[in-house]
Amino acid sequence: MIPLEVKPTGNTEQFNLQQYLHQKKEKIEKALDASLPIGEPAKIYEAMRYSLLAGGKRLRPILCLATAELLGQTEEVAMPTAIALEMIHTMSLIHDDLPAMDNDDYRRGRLTNHKVYGEDIAILAGDGLLAYSFEYVAKNTTGVPPERVVKVLAILGEAVGAKGLVGGQVLDLEYEGKPDITAEMLTSIHRRKTGALLEACVSCGAVLAGAQPEDLQRLSGYAQNIGLAFQIVDDILDVTATSEELGKTAGKDVSAQKATYPRLWGVEVSRQKARELVDAAIQQLSFYGEKAIPLCAIAEYIVSRKN
Ligand code: GRG
User: Fold this and answer.
1) Which of 18, 95, 163, 234 is most buried as measured by Cβ atoms within 10 A of its Cβ?
2) CATH number for the domain including 124?
């Protein structure tokens, strides 16, 4: 049990984060498995399932569910969107690992998709997951006015496209081998490459719950802060954790001459900045009092995680 002091409410009641994450993860794993049965041609379904069901922290769907619940929506209503977010995230990992991108052999403790199925099928598995994520939200979201579903689809599209993941990845490739970029440029890359999808998780959960504009503003502030903290910690773990702990090749940023926060600021200052961002994220949720404990605890987890 992780004792957490949740600052906005001054509440020192213990919140069992590990149990919370475990319970959410169990439901998400079941829903992911059920979302994608093997169809024809079997090879592409197998490749999609190989990466989708390979484990991972499931942070993105958990964020979506926790946000929806904060604003009074049920887990059931938000689950199709939560599943779609994990499909999109998995697609981005498959494509990120390709030889034309980061060229990685391991992900989530197993061989990368292209190492098992070949580059052609891995590209198509990512494409299949991306297309299916939109189909899945549109066909399976029930119990909310259709306008909310349309808004969710628009948020997902914006987060994946050139304003989000795609644009961030293009900039990331452009700056490879030029590790001396400014902190501002690094942050602008990661706000798109990593932050946009994390923010979409929170915004989609909020929209499904019928959030007011002020809710969306507070929650986006929270999401932007944890998004950047998440990436700083990711960079720190790349130089401090082992490949076994990470389930992927450690030290990859250094060997690929990537600009990272530890390279710019050193590990200790990077840790401090991540801590400050998490404190700011928690502060954004003070309005919600105790109802925000799960999201505050998730923010704490982002800085304390080991993989
Ligand atoms: C093809 C439309 C299209 C988009 C893809 C490849 C790409 C464009 C973008 C790369 C996005 C990317 C992989 C960003 C890194 C984000 C990141 C830090 C991932 C690690 O997330 P974790 O630690 O992983 O949550 P698990 O395995 O726990 O889910």
Assistant:
1) 95
2) 1.10.600.10
